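Side project, low priority. Logging it here so it doesn't get lost.
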Amino acid sequence: MASKWRLLNSHHFMKSPLLYRIRHHSDGGGMVLQTTLSRVSVEETAPLISGYSVQGFNLRGVQVMGSVALLPRGFFHWKINSADTITPESMSIFTLIEPKLELVILGTGSRMVNIDTAVKRYLQGRGISVEIQDTANACATFNFLLDDGRLAGAALIPPETVSFIQRR
């Protein structure tokens, strides 16, 4: 089955490197409960979104099936199928990286859907703003923010439908 991808006009790439470091979370008594992923890279490029479909996303030629969590220098599969299944726990990856994100864009599918207020409070309580949009606009916003040098993340659910414009 031939997959149809909607291509985005994204030809700008971030040039400034970002550094990640290890962050340990403890119970206050000195016992380490969790260690977050750390990566230092000055050669990698941002995971700009070059297209999307009902099946997933195209990140600079890499096709990712299903929902995706995007960071300034990487991405992860995100086990979320619809906006009503988004929880604070499912958004925790955005709170674990350094440097801290300024903003997370949530793409909720073909249309913008409000999410549980606990999710917004969770991120805002950690100093991260939240912007909810339909996935098409969330893709464009994420690319724009990265191109502008902002520390942004995105949590994107593939749209249920994709409309195509025929060009002659």
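Brief comment: The domain at 46-156 is CATH 3.40.1230.10 (Hypothetical Protein Mth938; Chain: A,).
Revisit when time allows.
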